[in-house]
């Protein structure tokens, strides 16, 4: 399965722990979405990243290839149970665009948030996972600057 990570799963050590089969494919961007923190993570207790529709905006991230037998592990990490109720995310197929030119489409699995009312801000530690992952994979400098200014909970 090809999977697009745009939040803390960009952090390579975290991704290797969750899905040891993960193999980096490329960086990519999700068009017409912005990064937000629209829900509370059940496991972390802070605001969690989510792709929110926003025409003209872009979310950069990482495409991994993951063995099929690890999809359930990834679903659990994302608080998603297929067909279940009370999920934080839903997994859907979507198109991302490869590399820095961003014009070659690729179908990937992607987790979209179930937006909640009044979610908390992300923690500093959670934000650091996202920023470190983005730096590790060499996402564009402008996007890194945007990530660095994300407000966190006190």
Number of strands: 5
Supply the CATH architecture. Answer: Roll
Overall geometry comes to globular
CATH topology assignment: Hypothetical upf0131 protein ytfp
Q: Kindly report the name of the CATH homologous superfamily.
A: Gamma-glutamyl cyclotransferase-like
Percentage of residues assigned to helices:
10-25%
Main sheet record: 5 strands, antiparallel
Return the domain count.
1
Q: Secondary-structure element sequence?
A: EHEEHEEHH
Helical region count? 4
Multimerization status: single chain
Q: Runs with pLDDT <50, length 5+? A: none
Average pLDDT reading: 95
- Rg calculated over all Cα atoms: 14 Å
**What is the highest CATH level, the class?**
Alpha Beta
Give the CA-CA distance, first to last residue: 38 Å
Given the helix and strand composition, which structural class is it? alpha+beta
Strand content: 35-45%
Query: Taking strands numbered 1, 2, ... along the chain, how are they ordered across the largest sheet?
Result: 1-3-2-4-5
């Amino acid at each position: 399965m090809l999977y697009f990570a745009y939040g803390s799963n960009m952090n390579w050590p975290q991704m290797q722990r969750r899905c040891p089969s993960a193999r980096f494919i490329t960086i990519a961007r999700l068009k017409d979405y912005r990064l937000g923190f629209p829900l509370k993570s059940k496991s972390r207790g802070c605001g969690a990243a989510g792709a929110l529709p926003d025409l003209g905006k872009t979310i950069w991230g990482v495409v991994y290839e993951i063995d099929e037998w690890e999809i359930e592990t990834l679903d659990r990490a994302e608080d998603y149970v297929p067909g279940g109720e009370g999920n934080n995310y839903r997994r859907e197929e979507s198109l991302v665009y490869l590399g820095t030119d961003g014009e070659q489409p690729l179908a990937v699995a992607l987790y979209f948030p179930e937006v909640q009312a009044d979610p908390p801000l992300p923690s500093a530690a959670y934000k650091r996972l996202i920023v470190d992952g983005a730096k590790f994979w060499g996402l564009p400098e402008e996007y890194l600057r945007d990530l660095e200014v994300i407000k966190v909970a006190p």
